C-alpha cells in the first residue's frame, strides 16, 4: 500500500504540485503495457501502442515518443502512469472516429457531427482532413463549405456595420445621423417616416409614368405628336427632385464614397434619375427640326429607362433583394433553364416547320417564324395566333406542350431552393442583428457586466458536468439496463466512475477497501433510514416538480437543523438524508432552485450540518465513494476524509484554490489522477486534505448546480465558511450516492462475495480510514461493480445496524415501497458506517 | 440500449462457457452458447479454440490476458455493441451516426455475414455503396486523364494525345480552344439551318424553286466539314472503336453528319439521272429534318443536359405514367366533348380524333382557341378536363423533377468527392514512396 501510494504521488495528479515523474518511469510504464488507456473527455478507450504507431506524426503517435514529463504534457492534458492512462480534454464523440482511423486506416465521420467541430478535432489530433473517406468526404466538404460561406457572410455583415466610421472628416456626428436617417429605417421613427415617404414617391412616379401613356391624357405638341400631360409632367418633376435630393444626401453622408457609388442599389437609384436629366438636356439643346427625329428616338429609349425606378423598391424590401441575390447565385440553373428552353424551341419549331410547310397559307413560313409558336406552346401560353393544322403538326404540338411543361419544371426547384435558403438566411441575420444590438445596449447599460463573472464560473462548472455526463452515458448500458428507466444519469455516473477507477485499480489492487470504523448505533442508523426514506422517496418520484421539491428541501433542512441539537451523529445523518434528497432534486432542477438552496446553507444549519456530516462521513466513507459518479466519487472521498482528519483545516483553502481544484477534480474523476492526489494529501498532512475536501465540496455542489449555472453563486460563500460548504457538499454526495446505490442493488450479491474475499483490506481500512476509503472506491470502480462491493462490505461490517441494512437491500428489491430509495439510503448508511 | 440481459459486464473471472472480451477498453463477458449461434464468427472461433494455443489466439485477437482470461480487440466498441446484437436477435441494425461503410468493415472483422444486416439498414448501405462506385468510376476517368504517357509506340502516343485534345477540354489550352470552336460551330450550324428557311433569304434556282442562299450553304458545308473532321479524329483516337461508335453522344454526332452526305450523294445521283428527280427531292426533304440532331450535339458541352438525359432515363416509369394519364384524359375528354358538342349545329368537334387535339391543348393549358366548345355542357366538360389535365401533369412530374434535382446535386458532390479521392491517392502513393525510400535508407 505504501508503495503504491508513493507511486501515485509520483505519477499521479499534478494538482497537488508534486514532482513530475522521471522519464525513466514514463518509459518503464510504456514498456510494460502493450495497451494504453486513453481518456478523452471522460470516455475511456483502450488501444494497442502499436496501433498508435501507425501514424507517428499525429498527436497520438507522438504520445508514444514522449518520454519526458514536459513533452508529455504538451501532447496530452493529463496522465497517470500508474494506470497507464492519458487524458485529453476533448470532445469524446469525434474521438471514436479518429481512433478508428488508427485501427482501420479509414477515417469516417460521425453523421451527426458538425463539420466545423470535426475539422477542429482533426486539427487537434493532427490528422489531415484529406484522409476522410470519400463516402463521408462529400458530406463533410459540403457542410464545411456551407458553414464557411455563412461565416464569411456574417463577417462581411459585421464589417459593414463596423466599417461605418465617420471619424475622418468634418461634422462626422451630423453625417452619421444623416446616414442613419436615410439608410436605416429601423433606427428611428423619423427614418421610418422618411422611408415610407420614399416608397410613396416611387409608387407615385411609376403610376404617373403609366398614366402618361394613356392616349386620353396625352397632349399633342406643335409637331402633331403626342407629348406628356403637363400635370403629370409636374408630378414627374417633383418625384425626380425628391429622388435626386435623396441620392445626393446619401452620397454626401456616406462614409465611403466609392463603395457607395458602386453599391447595386445606388446604381439603380442613379439610373432612375439620370434619364430624366438626359432627356431634358437633349430636348433643350437640340431644338432644331433637323435633328429632332433622332433626339426623339434617344429620348424614347431614356423614357424606357425610367421603368428602372420601380427597382428602387428593392431598397425597402428584403424579399426583392433576396430575389436578386438568388438570381445572381443560381445563374447556372437559370442558364440551364434557358438552354433547355432554347433547345426545345429549336427542335420543335423545326419539326413543326417541316410538318406544316406544305400547307397552303400556313403561318409556319420558316423556322424562325415558328420559334414564336414553339415558345408560346412550350410555356403553355397558347395565344392561338399561330397553330398547327396538319395531323403531323398537331402531334408535334402535343409533344411540344408536354415537353415544355417538363423542361421548365426541371431546373426551377433548384432555383427555388436557392431562394428559400437565402431568404431564411436573410431572416436569420436580421434576427441576429437585433439580438446583437440588444446585447450592445445591455452592455452599455451595465446590466450584463455583473453577469459575466457568474457566467465564467458557471461555464467552468458546466464544462465539467457536461463532460462527466457524456462520459458516463455509454457505460450505463453495460451496467444496468434495468435501471435505465428511473435513474439513467446516476447509473451513467456510476459506470464512469467505475471505469476511471479501473485504471487505478491496476496500480494498487489490494489496498484496504473497507470503510472506516463505525461509531454509529443501530438505533441512530435506523432513524436515519426512516428519515431518509421519507424525504428521499418523494423527491425522487417527482423529480420534475420544482415547487414541491423546494418545499421538501426546506423541510429537510429544518429537520436536519433540529436534529443537530440531539446527538451529533444522528443530526448529521438526518441532515445528510435531507441533503441527499435535495441534491438529487437539484441535479435535475436548473439553476433557480440551486440558488435558493445556496443562500440557505451558509446561513442556516450549514455549520452544524457540516460538522455532523463530517462525522457521519467518517463513519462511512467507503460506501459513499463507491456509489458516486466519477466526479462526485473522487470528491466525496476527500470530503469525507477531511472531516475526520482535520476539521480545522477546512477553513484554509482560498476561493481561487477551490475553483482550480474543483476543475481539476472534474477532470480527474475521469482520469483518476486526482484521486492519487487525494491520497497524497491524506498521507502528507491535514492541510492538503482540507483543500481536497473543499474541492470535493465543489464537486459535490456541481451536481446540484449541475451543468446549468449558478456554480459561481455558490463559490463566494464557500470560501469564508468552508466548513459549511463542505457539509452541503457532503449531503449532496449522499443523495447522489443513494441514487446510485439504488441502481446497483441488483448486483449486491456479487459485491458481497468480493468483499468477503479480502478481509485484510478491511482491516487496513480500519487503521487508516482516509486512504482506505479511496482505495476501496477505486477498487470497486475497477471491477465495474463498485457499488455492489461496497454494499457487500457493509454487510460484513461489525456494526449491527449496517448489517441489517445490507440484508434489507438484498431482500428488499422486491418490496414495493422501498426499492429505489430505501436501497439508496441503505447504501448511504453503509457508507457512513 | 441493452434491452435484454445480454452480455455481463463484471470483474470476476468468467465461468465455464463464458469468455471475457475487451473491445477497445470496453469489457464484456459473453456466454459461449450464445456465441455458438454463429460458429463462423470470430468470437465463436475464439471460444472454441483452446486457451493454450497462443498462436491461434493471437491470430484471432490483438492481446490476451491469461490471468484474467480476457481477450483484447483493438476495435471500435461502439460498432461492436451493435454487432453483438446478432447473437441475441439474429439481426443487426447500424447505429445511426456510424458510417455504413465503416460498419461493414467492422462486421467483416468480426466475421459476421452481411446478410444479417436488417433490411432497413441495408438500403442505406447500398445507397452509400452506389455512391462509392460512382465516385470510383469518376476517379478512374480522372486517373486515366492524368496517366502519364507510357505508350511504347509513337502511334499510341499520338493517339492518346489526340484523344485528350478532342475529349478532355480541361486537359490543355488547345483542347479547350477546340471545344469552344466545336461548340460555336454547333451553334452556327443550328442558326444557319433556321435562317435558311426564311423565304426572304432564299433565292430561286434555275427551275424557279426556292433554295437556300449560297452563303448559308457555304457556312453549312464548312460546319459539316468541321463536324466530320471532328468525328473521325475522335474515332481514330479512341482506344475502343466499337464502344466509341455505339456510345450515345457519338451516335448523335453521326446522325448530325450523315444527312449532309446522303443528300450530297442523292443529288449527285439525281443529276446524273440515275434516280427520279422528284424522288430525290423528297428524300432530301426528309433528310433535312435529320439536321435537327445537331442541336443535341450541345449536350456534349453541357453537364446540365447530360443530367437531364440521365434523369429522364432514370424516370422512364414516371414518364410512362405521365403519358398514360394524358392518354386516358385525352381519350375520355375528347369523347365527352364530341358527344356533348354534337347538339350544336356549328360544332368544331367533327370527330373524336379531331377533338383529341382540343383535349391535348386544353389539358396542357395551352389553349390556342382554334377549337373550343360552344354548348354549356361542353364548356363544363372543358373546365373539368383543364383541371384534370393540370393534376395529371403535376402528379407524375414531381418524381421526375425530384430525380433531376437529386442527380443535379449529386453530380456536383461527386465531382468534388472524386477530386478529393484523387488527391488522397496521390498523397498515399507519395507516402508509400517516402516510406520505401526511408526503409531503404534504414537498410
From TrEMBL, chain A:
<dbReference type="GO" id="GO:0042383">
    <property type="term" value="C:sarcolemma"/>
</dbReference>
<feature type="compositionally biased region" description="Basic and acidic residues">
    <location>
        <begin position="814"/>
        <end position="825"/>
    </location>
</feature>
<dbReference type="Pfam" id="PF03521">
    <property type="entry name" value="Kv2channel"/>
</dbReference>
<dbReference type="GO" id="GO:0016328">
    <property type="term" value="C:lateral plasma membrane"/>
</dbReference>
<dbReference type="GO" id="GO:0001508">
    <property type="term" value="P:action potential"/>
</dbReference>
<dbReference type="InterPro" id="IPR027359">
    <property type="entry name" value="Volt_channel_dom_sf"/>
</dbReference>
<keyword id="KW-0770">Synapse</keyword>
<keyword id="KW-1133">Transmembrane helix</keyword>
<dbReference type="InterPro" id="IPR028325">
    <property type="entry name" value="VG_K_chnl"/>
</dbReference>
<keyword id="KW-1003">Cell membrane</keyword>
<dbReference type="GO" id="GO:0005251">
    <property type="term" value="F:delayed rectifier potassium channel activity"/>
</dbReference>
<dbReference type="InterPro" id="IPR003973">
    <property type="entry name" value="K_chnl_volt-dep_Kv2"/>
</dbReference>
<dbReference type="GO" id="GO:0008076">
    <property type="term" value="C:voltage-gated potassium channel complex"/>
</dbReference>
<keyword id="KW-1017">Isopeptide bond</keyword>
<dbReference type="GO" id="GO:0030425">
    <property type="term" value="C:dendrite"/>
</dbReference>
<dbReference type="GO" id="GO:0030424">
    <property type="term" value="C:axon"/>
</dbReference>
<dbReference type="InterPro" id="IPR005821">
    <property type="entry name" value="Ion_trans_dom"/>
</dbReference>
<dbReference type="GO" id="GO:0043204">
    <property type="term" value="C:perikaryon"/>
</dbReference>
<keyword id="KW-0630">Potassium</keyword>
<protein>
    <recommendedName>
        <fullName>Potassium voltage-gated channel subfamily B member 1</fullName>
    </recommendedName>
</protein>
<dbReference type="Pfam" id="PF00520">
    <property type="entry name" value="Ion_trans"/>
</dbReference>
<keyword id="KW-0407">Ion channel</keyword>
TrEMBL record, chain B:
<dbReference type="GO" id="GO:0008076">
    <property type="term" value="C:voltage-gated potassium channel complex"/>
</dbReference>
<dbReference type="InterPro" id="IPR028325">
    <property type="entry name" value="VG_K_chnl"/>
</dbReference>
<keyword id="KW-0851">Voltage-gated channel</keyword>
<dbReference type="GO" id="GO:0051260">
    <property type="term" value="P:protein homooligomerization"/>
</dbReference>
<dbReference type="Pfam" id="PF02214">
    <property type="entry name" value="BTB_2"/>
</dbReference>
<feature type="transmembrane region" description="Helical">
    <location>
        <begin position="244"/>
        <end position="269"/>
    </location>
</feature>
<keyword id="KW-1133">Transmembrane helix</keyword>
<dbReference type="InterPro" id="IPR003131">
    <property type="entry name" value="T1-type_BTB"/>
</dbReference>
<protein>
    <recommendedName>
        <fullName>BTB domain-containing protein</fullName>
    </recommendedName>
</protein>
<dbReference type="InterPro" id="IPR011333">
    <property type="entry name" value="SKP1/BTB/POZ_sf"/>
</dbReference>
<feature type="domain" description="Potassium channel tetramerisation-type BTB">
    <location>
        <begin position="19"/>
        <end position="120"/>
    </location>
</feature>
<dbReference type="InterPro" id="IPR003971">
    <property type="entry name" value="K_chnl_volt-dep_Kv5/Kv9"/>
</dbReference>
<keyword id="KW-0633">Potassium transport</keyword>
<keyword id="KW-0812">Transmembrane</keyword>
<keyword id="KW-1003">Cell membrane</keyword>
<dbReference type="InterPro" id="IPR048010">
    <property type="entry name" value="KCNF1-like_BTB_POZ"/>
</dbReference>
<keyword id="KW-0472">Membrane</keyword>
<feature type="transmembrane region" description="Helical">
    <location>
        <begin position="173"/>
        <end position="198"/>
    </location>
</feature>
<keyword id="KW-0630">Potassium</keyword>
<keyword id="KW-0406">Ion transport</keyword>
<feature type="domain" description="Ion transport">
    <location>
        <begin position="176"/>
        <end position="411"/>
    </location>
</feature>
<feature type="transmembrane region" description="Helical">
    <location>
        <begin position="383"/>
        <end position="401"/>
    </location>
</feature>
